[in-house]
Structure formats: C-alpha cells, structure tokens
Predict the structure.
Amino acid sequence: MSNIIDSSSVIGKDTKLGEMIIIEGNVKIGKGCQIGHQVIIREGSIIGDNVRIDEHTVIGKRPMKAALSAIGGSTEALPPVEIGQKAIVGASVIIYAGAKIGPYVLVADMATVREDVTIGDYTIIGRGATIENKTSVGVKCKIETEAYICALSSIGDNCFVAPEVTFTNDNFLARTKERFKYHKGVTMLKGARVGANATIMPGVTIGEDGLVGAGSIVNKDVPARKVVVGVPARVIKNVPPEQLLENQ
C-alpha cells in the first residue's frame, strides 16, 4: 500500500517510512527518523532528528471537547506537536496537538499525551499511561505503566510515579457549579516519588524528595523529605539520606 504525503511537508535525509502512512501538510520530519506502518502525522507537526515512531500512532490529534467539560480552552487554535531529537514513541500512542515532547523522551506503547502538555528531556512515559491536558512534566522523570496524571498537574524534575497511581483534580465529583472555582491538579516538586496504586487528591503538593507509600490516599500536602503512608496518609519518618536526590 502507498503512503499519502502532502507535498508541503519536508522529510529529512535517511528517514525510513513504513507503509500506509499519512503525513498532512507543513509537517517537518528530521533526518534519520523511523516511522512505522499506519502512522498518522497531522498538520504542522515538527519531529526532530533520529526520532522513532512505531505502528498505529497518531501525532497531532485535534482534541475533542464535551459540552459539559470542566476544563476550558480552545480545541481550534493549538500549536503543532513538537517532538525532540532521539525521542521514541511506541505503538498505538496518541499525542495531541499542542503537546511538546523533549529530546530523548520515551513514550511507551498505548500511552496518551493530551494537548497543552510539556514533557522534559529524558523522561519516560510508561505503557498505557495518560497525561491529561494543561500538565507539565519535568526532565528525567518516570511515569510508569497505567499511571493517570489528571489535568492541571505539575510534576517537577527527577520525579517518580509508580504504576496505577491516580491523580485527581475535582473535590466535588462533578456536582455543583462551586467545583469550577477549585479545580486544581496535583503538584510534585523536584525529586518527589509516589508508590504504586496511591491516589493523590486535588490540590495536594508533594514536597521536594517527599515519598508517598504504595496504596496511600493523600489528602494533605506532603512535607519535603518526609515519608507518608496510609488511608489517609500520615507522616511516619524522614526519607533516608541515601535516597535523597542530592546523594544520587
């Protein structure tokens, strides 16, 4: 099967294309890239050198907005996707228009990165993870398999989010107009870590090098360099010195 490539798009030297690829207008693809079978790259997307994009992935998907969506913002005037050099994007990934993916980032199979999201250099987004809109993720982070990062969140550099972690941003559970005044995601400061299956409530800040134990429900801010566990989570001890980011 042949590919469909708009004549206004530019494909760099030594880039290898699979079959049944669609590349829309004004796309820029760097040199030495590998684009798998049945990939769709939407209008204006910018892809750096030596990027790998695997089969069935969509780059630059236009967002959908439900009539009752609590998170505002236009679905029309979004900048194109940018993917930095030597990034790897797995199979069946969806990266929305307005996302910016730094160099050397790995976005694993079946992950979703929404609009107005930035992901810093060398960060790993695990298999099936979801990064919702208006979220920033720093450099050298690990967001592991099936983690859910809600809209309006901020994750600092060198943070770790274990599998099946859930961030939340709505204390009113979609009831009453009052909730719109308080929508806020989760903030993780530099070096913070969250264990598997933990749930972090809206507006919570996890301080620098703070650590949330597996299975915890966190409804209050986590102090810097403290370990919290339980339902609800409470401080039980200091983070051991050998685990602090400064000692790595």
About this structure: The chain is about 0% helix and 30% strand. The radius of gyration is 19 Å. The longest strand covers residues 234-238. Residues 147-248 form a domain with the UDP N-Acetylglucosamine Acyltransferase; domain 1 fold (CATH 2.160.10.10).
